[in-house]
Write a structure and sequence with these properties.
Blueprint lengths: L2 E3 L2 E4 L10 E6 L6 H8 L11 E2 L2 E2 L5 H6 L2 E4 L11 H5 L14 H15 L14 H14 L4 E5 L7 H16 L3 E5 L3 H7 L2 E6 L2 E7 L5 H9 L18 E10 L3 E9 L3 E5 L6 H9 L6 E6 L2 E2 L5 H7 L1 E4 L3 H5 L6 H5 L4 H4 L7 H14 L16 H13 L5 E5 L7 H16 L3 E5 L3 H7 L2 E6 L2 E7 L5 H9 L6
Parallel strand pairs: 3-8, 3-9, 6-7, 7-8, 13-18, 13-19, 16-17, 17-18
Antiparallel strand pairs: 1-2, 4-5, 9-10, 11-12, 11-14, 14-15, 19-20
Helix pairs in contact: 14-15
């Protein structure tokens, strides 16, 4: 298939062949064309050329309604449910059964929804509002909707990005059960370990083109990475040799926010990457937001560069030299409807202005410098941030904060949802910045990233710090023991 948007060729020659009763991985760097291909399959876009067959028959969907009616369901990374409606109402949205008086037959809906969740082996209240559900449970509602439609093709786009280990295991169990029913599942992920654990076949795309398809049992992670990036990725976790630790830059003492975190203390030194590890929901992001001033804390203190910072005042944190790359880059880190140049210079606008005026030329020159330094790939710096791939959006957020020359960088989930090649670039950048003396507090749910990048690791569980580990002592076993209260078998 091929697809262009104006002068941009999103797909040049994309091939994908998926069999019933299979779990098929679709992999590639951000910008490889995976999302465009999925949107053609789902009826969001129409292809410019190429052939699309479903069950052997030629098809050409002009809407998502047609795609769904043909038995195709797409489950996105961020579920698209109506938060104020019940789980049952979401499952049957647009096709609610009615009784003989043409009123909604809620008893039938409830009965069928209950049967769906029993079939999937999960416990979700059909009458509860989706607003209070976790991302994992929202995805299960989407899966239940797909099963209720008797979808024969299910496409899961980064379904595990925001899930804990237990939630991932539950999702994989359900995916395997659906495969065993004869459905075809397409699994899009950047996590190689998950792909090799779950999928039986892997198709790789690069730069809008088909690269290869291989049976999982007959290939290796290294071979898949080479196919994705077109080169060897020497090391995902580069570490510059030599000691670089300086004086303490950030000191948090007994930070407490009742019901969220309690008595949290830690330090970060200049030239050091400190990892904040723990399971999803352990309170790591909340602590980071409190340090930066986005959220308030009731007791405790934050001292930065020898001065105590006021609580709940992000402007004071920025003025002191603290940068914060949030977990959700699209909602909290970017202005998607503004240009790349405008996003990069957001924090600098006051300092770039002369006599209160900021010209587009000055803004563009500053943005060009930082876009080049972080290797942001964009058609033009005037392009909207919403048009960039996830990895390049992350680079823009980092560029925005590095432009202010901070003393401390707080970065939450630095590589979530980005491809292997871009991960290596982000890791190299963080290592380079730390070697230049920047203090870095890094929050990550990927244990290999924590272990590979951190000089020290603090582990959190249920809102409390349970361990402080030097690099030499930080292992998968020691971190997971502190994060779960469970001893990890050797």
């Amino acid at each position: 298939m091929s697809k262009s948007f104006g002068a941009v060729k999103a797909l040049i020659s994309a091939d994908l062949s998926v069999q019933p009763g299979s779990l098929h991985a679709l992999m590639g760097e951000n910008g490889a064309g995976k999302s465009t291909l999925v949107k053609i399959i789902a009826g969001v876009h129409r292809r410019d050329a190429g052939e699309f067959r479903l069950g052997g028959e030629l098809v050409d969907f002009s809407s998502t309604t047609e795609s769904k009616a043909a038995g195709i369901a797409v489950i996105y990374q961020e579920p698209t449910l109506f938060p104020d409606l019940s789980v049952t109402e979401n499952i049957f949205m647009g096709r609610q059964p009615t009784n003989r008086w043409r009123k909604l037959d809620r008893r039938v809906m409830h009965r069928e929804a209950t049967a769906l969740f029993e079939r999937l082996g999960v416990s979700i209240d059909p009458e509860g509002r989706t607003l209070g559900l976790s991302i994992a449970d929202q995805q299960l509602v989407e899966i239940a909707k797909a099963v209720s439609l008797d979808a024969r093709v299910l496409i899961m786009d980064e379904p595990t990005a925001a899930l804990s280990g237990t939630e991932v295991a539950r999702l994989f169990t359900i995916a395997r059960a659906l495969r065993d029913e004869g459905r075809a599942l397409v699994f899009i992920s950047h996590r190689l370990d998950e792909v090799f654990d779950l999928c039986d076949t892997i198709t790789v795309m690069r730069d809008g083109q088909y690269v290869s398809t291989a049976r999982t049992a007959e290939t290796t992670p290294a071979a898949i990475v080479r196919a994705m990036v077109g080169r060897e990725v020497a090391s995902l976790f580069p570490k510059t040799e030599g000691s670089r630790r300086g004086d303490v830059v950030l000191q948090a003492d007994a930070l407490t926010s009742p019901g969220v975190f309690e008595d949290v203390s830690f330090t970060v030194r200049a030239g050091e990457i400190v990892g904040l590890a723990g399971l999803v929901g352990a309170g790591r992001s909340e602590v980071a937001r409190a340090v930066f001033g986005v959220d308030r804390y009731r007791t405790g203190s934050v001292t930065f560069d020898g001065r105590r910072l006021p609580a709940g005042n992000p402007r004071a944190a920025i003025s002191a030299g603290i940068a914060f790359v949030p977990e959700d880059r699209r909602k909290q880190g970017l202005l998607l409807d503004m240009s790349v140049a405008r996003n990069i210079t957001l924090v600098l606008r006051r300092s770039l202005a002369k006599a209160g005026l900021l010209t587009s030329d000055v803004e563009y020159r500053s943005a060009t410098h930082w876009a080049a330094r972080l290797q942001v790939k964009a058609a033009d710096l005037d392009s909207m941030a919403s048009t960039l791939s996830g990895g390049n959006q992350q680079k823009v957020v980092i560029a925005k904060w590095m432009a202010m020359n901070p003393k401390l960088l707080i970065i939450d989930e630095p590589t979530r949802g980005i491809d292997v090649g871009t991960k290596a670039e982000v890791h190299r950048l963080l290592d380079e910045l730390a070697h230049q003396g920047l203090a870095i507090l890094m929050i990550s749910s990927e244990l290999p990233e924590v272990l590979g990048m951190s000089d020290r690791v603090y582990v959190m569980r249920e809102g409390a710090v349970t361990a402080e580990l030097d690099r030499a002592d930080a292992t998968s076993e020691s971190v997971m023991t502190a994060a779960t209260r469970m001893e990890v078998a050797a």
